[in-house]
Amino acid sequence: MKGAVEERAVELGEYIIENNATVRAAAKKFQISKSTVHKDVTDRLHRNHPQLYAQVKEVLEHNKQERHIRGGLATRRKYKGD
Q: How many CA atoms lie within 13 A of 13 on its CB side?
């Protein structure tokens, strides 16, 4: 079981990097919770695959910086009727 969890963490990390994906998008793709994705890519990758973790961290930081913009656009679409 432990090996499967570590493999999932690597797959999640690679998916996030390749697709510039958010935690939410990765969770939806792998059909797991956002908490699980976050736990996998922060704790497990940091411990076992530090190079991959560094790349994932860059993508997640970038997404975090743009989060308020995406939220504003979603609100705009909601009330505009798109």
A: 25
What is the tens place of the pLDDT at every residue in 45-55?
999 999 999 99
**Confidence label for 2 from pLDDT (cuts 50, 70 and 90):** low
Measure CA 33 to chain center: 11
Residue 41 scores a pLDDT above 90: yes
Contacts of 23 (CB under 8 A, 6+ apart): 16, 34, 37, 38, 41, 60, 63
Burial letters 51-77, b for 16+ CB under 10 A, else e? ebbeebbebbeebeeeeeeeeeeeeee
